[in-house]
Amino acid sequence: MFNKKIVYFLMFVFAFLSISALIVNMPEKKDAQVIEKLAPYFPYEITKTIGGLDLIDKRSGEKLKLDNAKVFLAYDDYLKKWGKTHLKIEGNRLVILDDSGTPVDSMELTPNQRSFIQKFFFQQ
Q1: Measured between alpha carbons, how far is 119 from 95 in angstroms, rounded to an integer?
Q2: pLDDT tens across 18-72, in order?
Q3: Which residue ranges run through the membrane (predicted)?
């Protein structure tokens, strides 16, 4: 009926497609200390739901209804957009701003953290 070669080929194709989907939907690497400092001020949060993961807008409580495979990519995208308007680097200090542009918090940066912030938030 089915040749063994066809079965192996189908297994290979399925494995290849699964691995490529995983790689494409991986979030970018982030500096844990910087993200931990920003998390209380960032208006979106990843939450578990019955169907998987979802993003919630903390300001309105609205669920964004994203495909599970795209939640982490969307989180990164929202984080980058938010960071461009709410973060400012002054020397070796990161200043976190609120919606009106008033500083609400800051942190001292190491050279690696500064590099991460420049690449992640301010370069496209």
Answers
A1: 16
A2: 888 888 877 788 888 998 998 898 998 888 888 788 888 888 888 888 887 788 8
A3: 6-24
Q: What is the pLDDT of residues 76-122, one digit of tens each?
A: 889 999 989 999 998 889 999 988 888 998 999 999 999 999 999 88
The answer to whether the beta carbons of residues 106 and 94 sit under 8 Å apart is yes
Distance CA 123, CA 80 (A): 10
What is the widest separation between alpha-carbon atoms in the chain?
71
CB 21 within 8 A of CB 69: yes
* Among 83, 84, 92, 87, residue whose Cα is nearest residue 113: 92
pTM: 0.78
Neighbours of 76 (CB within 10 A): 15
